[in-house]
Amino acid sequence: MTQRWVQLTGKRVDLSDYPWLEGPIGDVELIGSAFFRRLAERKDLDFVADGPGRGLINDFSRLRGPACSPENVDPRVVTFYENTAEFEFDIWSEWCRAFRPFGGALAAIFSRRLQQLNVPLSPLDTKLGITSDVVQLKERSGRVVYTAWVRDVVATQRTLYAGSYSVCNVPGYPGPCVKVVFPLPNGSAIVIMRPESSPDGSFTVRSAGARFGDPGFYFFVEEKPGRGWARHVRTLKETIRVYTDAQGTLRADHDLWIWRTRFLRLHYKMRKRASS
Length: 276
Description:
Layout: H1 2-9, E1 11-14, H2 35-43, E2 46-48, H3 75-82, E3 87-95, H4 100-114, E4 130-138, E5 144-153, E6 158-168, E7 177-184, E8 187-197, E9 203-207, E10 216-224, E11 227-232, E12 236-244, E13 250-258, E14 261-272
Antiparallel strand pairs: 1-11, 2-4, 3-14, 4-5, 5-6, 6-7, 7-8, 8-9, 8-10, 9-12, 10-11, 12-13, 13-14
């Protein structure tokens, strides 16, 4: 039904004209934590799951733009983005009471079956923490084609998120943006976020835009390789603020909004792995 909605109400696109919508397309039956390994096999890419330099953004200075001055960001935050694989996480969640039944329905119908976007319904879901793996899919030349961040909930063994991260430009914003692509059956969910630095050293990304081509949330349904339909979901927005607290601990506040109502809050505590 979601795919039909995108096809009926979305925009027909050729990805050569809209490269910021390009990303990995999901399998029909299952996404899960092994998706990017399967993708590497299909595309004859090297799957790299260890070694240095595996961060969501390989060079944080690439995010310099109208609202982001990388030199003003706390170096510990920069280290997290450039070396994400070196960190482990604790996570807490809080649903708006009115939207929690929607979250339960989404999990029962969609997330658990596909093993993708299994957002915790209760703070106790993540009592044992989450796993965090950053992997790179490389060509034989060494060029990184995809950088993927895969997180599983330890207590339930369900995939929280499996998405690819990159930097892109969109026509509706005069600067680089962070792009996250979550593979879905026959398509993907794409979040384009504009970066902002603050005087306190924190770093925020926002997916909020008024029209197609702005930063925001998009669905893409593939018709054939390189072509399909895209739908900008203007009512769905999110912000992620990464910062250090008074004790020097690295933290992140992740808020999701729909129709100007915050329906889900996630809080992360990040720390270097013992081996790092």
